[in-house]
Structures
1.
Amino acid sequence: MTDNTASAAGTGNRPWHGVLVATALPLRDDLSVDHDAYADHCAWLVANGCDGVVPNGSLGEYQVLTPDERAKVVETAVAAIGGSRVMPGVAAYGSAEARRWAEQARDAGCASVMLLPPNAYRADERSVLAHYAEVAKAGLPIVAYNNPIDTKVDLVPELLAKLHGEGYIHGVKEFSGDVRRAYRIAELAPELDLLIGADDVLLELAVAGAKGWVAGYPNALPAASVELYRAAVRGDLDTALPLYRQLHPLLRWDSQVEFVQAIKLSMDIVGRHGGLVRPPRVPLRADQEAAVRAATEKAVAAGLG
């Protein structure tokens, strides 16, 4: 166990810096949450060089958890590795509910939260600003999560600059896939921290100045993923580029509809507890499973597992 006041390694007072793993959630055969396995997973990730975890993101299947399950996932992560290393997702349809999840994270000892824009409908700019203003009242630093593919609300650089200028957000997990935005964000809001949001643009955003990575595939391959990230952000392309090429057949699954199933399968292959997913997700097709299995086994054979 780690003391809740301990700072995540190398992050200072910005606990969203570094490699923060959007954790997959281990389920038992009856689809109940295996909290003991989850605690072990969080500790294993930190032991393998990751700076922290992001529970209750889409990779953690938060949409199909009960409120009690969702709260306990956060508490389990904090007990396992310390609150400064835990940045829960607090997305909800309503701003009041999202604020309550931010308050729950605060009370559990977390040091920051990650928040999607309103996603029950195609929110306009005023609604987005009001949403982040409400959740900011919980008092924890917020990292915005821009995922226009799934939410249909795009936190474009100009809107991010407004959110940051109002003091509502401190960083952004960028999942649009448009790496050109990194430079526009840096021009409009130079103090807003850019976090890599999609595994398959890691190198491009790292060299563009990203301060962190909200990561999927370190769930299965943490040590190699951390080595890749550290090399990329320090500009060591001689190390980073070959690793990136080796890992990219897996990293690109993070941007696919079946990313939860793919990452959990890779976890199973390397000896971790990946396992089942809750409906409405269904198992991978045979061809998808074969592709993930082949790419994972090739990475392990190359010493990346």
Note: The longest strand covers residues 18-22.
2.
Amino acid sequence: MIKTVHVSHVGRVRSVNEDSAWIRHLEQGYILGIVADGMGGHLAGDTASRLAVETLAADLATLESGLSAHSLTAALSDAILHANEVIFQTAARDEKYHNMGTTVVAVLLNDASGIIGHIGDSRAYVISKGAVRQLTEDHTLVNELFKNGQISKEERENHPRRNVLTRALGTDSEVKVDIDSIALEKGDVLLLCSDGLSNLVTEEQISKVVGAAENPLEERADRLLHLALLAGGDDNITVALFELPDDTVSLSEKGCDA
């Protein structure tokens, strides 16, 4: 049984939390998790991320059980594209929402395997056997510069324009969704997060905190959030964790003699 938790914090600088997060174990047996990081001013950013979560949650709540990976991919992609339409049309109808948008990273799990859909610079990582692997690719100007060999990895991490997005949800009438598949093994943890975490907490820190399986999942999520706050907390911070527990328990842990 996959364990889940999500936490969010406004941070030390912002007055409004424009992040939205949502996790549910759906009746059909799937697990749906969403993290969205809104932009466009406090009212607009908050609205964009909320609309993203609400649209995906509503669209995917009625999925049939036992769908193939291909069908789940199509369902998640369609839901994200629908959210793009909802946000774009809402902004077009009301001036106070002009140019609002949001990132989104969402996972639809069927037991230990699943599909990740993603737009923007909110990220998905998998932490496995002490190693951290980023599953998503940032849709940012700085990442494009890095891929083209114009800046180094170190320059990418510290670039003053690292938050400039090249793709977002709701800012244009049409958008491309990146889709990745994931298969969790026992002991693995999937992390979804906004850039308020990934900009301030290193992969080494993520590995150390999330890999400490002896600690409750809630405690590990809170610890990641606390590390981002200690590093400055200059943005909203959102963390969502999905763990496939390793149910191998030693004799000593059971209180038995070897």
Note: The longest helix spans residues 69-93.
3.
Amino acid sequence: MDKVVATAAEAVADVPDGATLAVGGFGLSGVPNVLIEALYERGVGGLGVVSNNCGAMDSGLAVLLAAGRIARVTGSYIGANKEFARQYLGGELEVEMIPQGTLAERLRAGGAGIPAFYTPAGVGTQVAEGGLPWRYDGHGGVALASPPKEVREFDGTEYVLEHGIRTDFALVRAARGDRHGNLVFNKSSRNFNPLAAMAGRITVAEVEELVEPGAIDPDAVHLPGIFVQRVLALTPEQAADKKIEQRTVTTPAADGTVNR
């Protein structure tokens, strides 16, 4: 039952080239940076990544992306990641863009053993009709487009069929965790981390605070240990290393008010 591993390298030692990964995080919140860095150090490549976004600045999945280690991304947000956009438009990267709520439910469904589900999100658009560019040819043309999806009507409303997602591995970050793998997430890091963890066949969690079994109230557990195979306890320095994506500075005015 003790799922704690000694090092990040040990935690991801069996992730092969070409593996599929569900990776938690929302923006820069709750991103398993230590595990991602360990994958980078191993030199693993050709990865298929499922994540809300693909990292920002020089952290998270952006580390693997900039090194050319990611072959395919399934996500819902490109944002301000210029390297992501460059590789996608240049034909170097295959990208499946999904409505954010649909992505969340596809991960949850995969983890819950649900093969597919119907949703109204995307009906009447290229999400359902097909034609979204998955890969460009590097010259402005589309080399690979999304296929059409099944659409059915229920009680007078049309719904599109979406498939659950399962991945070879999942990497997540939690605020607290015990040796059995029970996890607690902090605020917005709870958006995608539990869902990513459910979708992975082998789930590795880095935790900012490792506690003994029984220290977490069962009612406070956000993700039960049945979904987690390995736990990595972060050092205090690793746990405190949290970047800010958009920093704002305020200065007091002469009259004591604050200018933004």
Note: The first strand starts at residue 4 and ends at 5.
